[in-house]
Structure formats: C-alpha cells, structure tokens
Design goal:
The protein is an all-alpha fold. 74% of the residues lie in helices and 0% in strands. Helix 2 (44-66) crosses helix 4 (102-117) and helix 5 runs antiparallel to helix 6 (170-209). Residues 1-6 have low confidence and may be disordered.
C-alpha cells in the first residue's frame, strides 16, 4: 500500500480539480469561504468522499438492476447480508419500531466502511483520517436522531427528556443533558478519526521501513479496524436513536 501525504494531491483529486476546480472555487467564494489553494480548491479528503459516494451509487444501481427473488446473485446476497445485520442489531437496541432507521444506518455503515477501506488501495487515502469527515458524519447522526425524537414525541415531549424525571431537578439536568449530547458529537468524531489516522500512519511507517512482508500484517489490521470502527459508529448511532424515540414512562 502506498499512502499519499495529506499535502500532495492524489491522482483522483487532480482530476477533479482539473474538471471542477473552477466550479468548486466559485461555490466557496459565494459562501465566503477562503481557500488556501485556489488552484486546487478540492482537497484529498473531499475527493475521496466523492469517489466513495460514486462507488456506492454504482454498487446500489447494479444491485437494483439485478434484484431477483428467484435467482439472486452474489452481490445481492452480500448487500442483503449487510442489511440483515444492521436490521438485527437495530432491532435489539431500538426495538421493533426500527424499520424507519434501517436505510440510514445501512448507508452510514457502508459509507464509513468504504471510506476506511479505500486507504489500502495504492494512490488513495482514507478520508476518515481527516477530522472533518468523521465530524460531518457525527453531525449528520446528531441531527438525524434529534429530528426523529421530535418527530416521534413532538417538540415539547422530546424536550422533557432533557429535564429528567423530576421537575425539581430540571435546572440541573438540562445543562448536563445538553453538554452530554454535544459530547456525543465529539466522541463519535475523535474515536473514528484517531483510529483511522493512527492506522494509516502506522502502516505508512512500516511500509517505508520494510516494504515486503511486515506491511501485510498491518494492512490486515487496518481492514479489521475499518470494520470495527464502522460498526461502533452505527452502534452508537442506534443507541442515540433508541434514547431519542423511546417513550418516557
């Protein structure tokens, strides 16, 4: 595995900047966002996110076209296995009303997993090794479970969760709960970023020192960590969803 540095442009990044750099720069300027490199406004981690999204969309399109209840192919079996795994896990944590959340959780799991794994391909890097990407995923999950909490219980009913079971302790519980929910974003971000960044750096160091047998071990470790971190991310997302949509008793 050859990991590109975070400064140099990857080949796919150069391609995107060549084709869409002007459009990206115009969007950034319209949003009053300063780009440190106007000649290459699309960064490596953004390019890798776009590539992973394209790969997943291509996979989904192929599976959709080949869906067959009578003669399912290997790819269909694979995606059904992933969906079944997420469904079983979410049912155990969220309960039997987990159906509305399966699509989001499955896509989130695959998106994070593919972003983690793409770093083992020569010429690419894991976008989750950049803190902005885990932060974006964490903020999406943060907004998602709060939205469904309000949708399920109404704004006032959901707000009662933050006040605790005893009205007398509401003034104490509200700030504690607010800090706790904000800390979830930090927890999701740091856990995913730190593990993937460390994995990339360790593999890069050993590959530069011993370019033959030893890196294979760390590539295997990187793959294991990639699956584990994607699983932990959606597992915590399920826990947060369960707390948001659970009815108070």
């Amino acid at each position: 595995m050859i990991l590109a540095t975070f400064i140099e442009q990857l080949p796919f990044t150069e391609l995107l900047n060549h084709w869409f750099g002007g459009v990206a720069l115009a969007i950034l300027r319209a949003l009053h966002i300063h780009s440190e490199h106007p000649e290459a406004p699309i960064t490596n981690f953004v390019a890798m996110e776009i590539l992973v999204a394209i790969i997943l969309l291509a996979f989904f399109a192929v599976v959709r076209m080949r869906i067959s209840p009578d003669n399912p192919g290997g790819l269909q079996h694979l995606f059904e296995a992933v969906e079944g795994f997420v469904n079983d896990q979410s049912r155990e944590i969220i309960g039997h009303h987990n159906d509305p959340f399966i699509a989001y959780l499955t896509v989130l799991f695959l998106f994070i997993l593919f972003m983690n794994l793409i770093g083992i391909v020569p010429g690419f890097e894991s976008p989750t090794a950049n803190p902005a990407v885990p932060l974006g995923c964490a903020l999406c999950t943060f907004a998602y479970y709060h939205f469904h909490g309000v949708k399920k219980q109404g704004a006032w009913g959901y707000a009662k969760h933050f006040a605790g079971p005893m009205p007398a302790l509401a003034l104490l519980m509200v700030p504690i709960e607010l800090v706790s929910h904000l800390a979830r974003v930090l927890s999701l971000t740091v856990r995913l970023f730190a593990n993937m960044f460390a994995g990339d750096m360790v593999t890069l160091v050993f590959f530069s020192l011993v370019p033959v047998v030893v890196p294979v071990v760390f590539i295997g470790l990187h793959i294991g960590v990639s699956f584990l971190q994607a699983y932990i991310f959606i597992l915590l997302s399920m826990v947060y969803l369960q707390g948001a949509v659970a009815e108070a008793h």
